[in-house]
Write a structure and sequence with these properties.
TIM Barrel; two-stranded antiparallel sheet
């Protein structure tokens, strides 16, 4: 293990999150729920979040996009906000797309989540890359002739746009100083207007005056994440995010990708602290290997293919999962994000079987005794306000 990963682990810096999508990450999971309409209920998502929190997972992420899904999908920012009032410790990271949404609305939605969850919100950035998504919201992509659907240039353009959106959103979060609310009854003043700031953003795609209509989030800046390992994704994360989720498929590929991320950070002179890089690991977990393989075969028989679940999937027992996850810790990753094959089976198995085994093995540190903000829990620096007088003209 490198000295960097040793010190990180010693500081309790290796973390575990759970990625939630519909009924689970294996396509066969859809056919194993008696009433598939239940995934559109508050009880379904509430139970998953509570079980994950009970096992002391650091965070859950919620997958979303603007595309039309065969089975339908709820808005994850609304789901996360609902869960914010029904959980106490776990981080809540919804997906919001940047392609057909306005930065002002993204900023307000996520600030609201952070207030409701008392500082446990985050943001997974996504882009809407297809023509179908554009048509669903009544908009087109810029320069369709120059950037046709499926082209590398379109992906590069949309992720470049996402960087600009993140920049605007971060500035909007800072447009209120932390003590802007004064609530002075004698004078009838609710806000100190000197502590609200116009961001006056003029970019290649957006012109935003501000300030926000929502007070600064409790965390100041919610943790911002990207997922994927394409060149545009790594570049966007390196210039604007705090977290990057990679699905490497194998430890050998993982080490190569981690080195690539650090190279890109240096190439673009990243001003923020180094990215927190997590390995995405699809997982099907049972008490024993025969049980795991049996359930895997059942899922395979129900679906035409395993989709992307096959890429480095852990179909194993707790001991096997601990060994695999330890490998990524030793490589210098900041954590893993597990993608359960079936939510109703594997979220409970992760919480009840795997998380205790990881802590017993020393792979994960003990969970914090008192609730923390998501930034604190993940070891991110305190977010200072770029518009505060002592930092006027500075950068978060």
């Amino acid at each position: 293990m490198s000295s960097t990963s040793l010190s990180d682990a010693a500081d309790g810096g290796f973390h575990l999150g759970i990625s939630l999508r519909d009924t689970g990450w294996h396509p066969g999971s859809w056919f194993r729920i008696a009433d598939t309409a239940e995934i559109f209920t508050a009880e379904y998502w509430g139970q998953l979040a509570v079980v994950a929190e009970r096992g002391e997972a650091d965070f859950v992420t919620f997958e979303d996009s603007l595309g039309l899904h065969r089975r339908g999908r709820l808005d994850t920012s609304l789901v996360a906000s609902w869960l914010g009032a029904r959980t106490e410790r776990i981080g809540l990271i919804p997906t919001l797309t940047t392609t057909h949404t306005e930065p002002f609305h993204v900023s307000k939605n996520l600030a609201t989540l952070d207030h409701i969850s008392t500082g446990r919100g985050g943001w997974q950035v996504e882009v809407s890359i297809t023509d179908v998504e554009a048509q669903l919201v009544g908009r087109g992509h810029p320069d369709p002739q120059l950037h046709p659907e499926g082209s590398a240039s379109r992906a590069a353009a949309l992720f470049a746009e996402s960087e600009e959106v993140v920049d605007v959103v971060r500035r909007l979060w800072d447009s209120w100083e932390d003590d802007a609310e004064i609530r002075d009854v004698s004078s009838g003043r609710f806000i100190d207007r000197e502590k609200l700031h116009y961001i006056n953003y003029e970019g290649s795609r957006f012109s935003v005056k501000a300030p926000s209509i929502t007070p600064r989030p409790p965390q100041g800046q919610l943790p911002v994440a990207y997922k994927g390992q394409s060149e545009p994704v790594i570049k966007a994360a390196a210039t604007s995010a705090d977290i990057l989720f990679l699905q490497p498929g194998s430890p050998g590929r993982a080490q190569q990708l981690l080195e690539e991320v650090r190279t890109v950070e240096a190439l673009f002179a990243r001003r923020l602290p180094p990215l927190k890089v997590y390995a995405d690991l699809p997982v099907l977990l049972e008490d024993s290997l025969p049980q795991a393989r049996g359930r895997w075969e059942t899922l395979e028989s129900l679906a035409e293919s395993a989709g992307d679940f096959d890429d480095g999937a852990l179909v194993t027992d707790p001991a096997g999962a601990v060994e695999a996850i330890s490998t990524y810790r030793n490589l210098g990753f900041n954590g893993v994000r597990l993608k359960p094959a079936e939510h109703q089976e594997d979220v409970a198995a992760i919480s009840e079987l795997l998380l205790p085994a990881l802590r017993s093995a020393g792979v994960l540190a003990a969970a914090p005794e008192t609730p923390l903000t998501l930034r604190q829990r993940l070891g991110l620096n305190q977010a200072v306000n770029r518009y505060a007088p002592a930092l006027a003209g500075g950068q978060q």
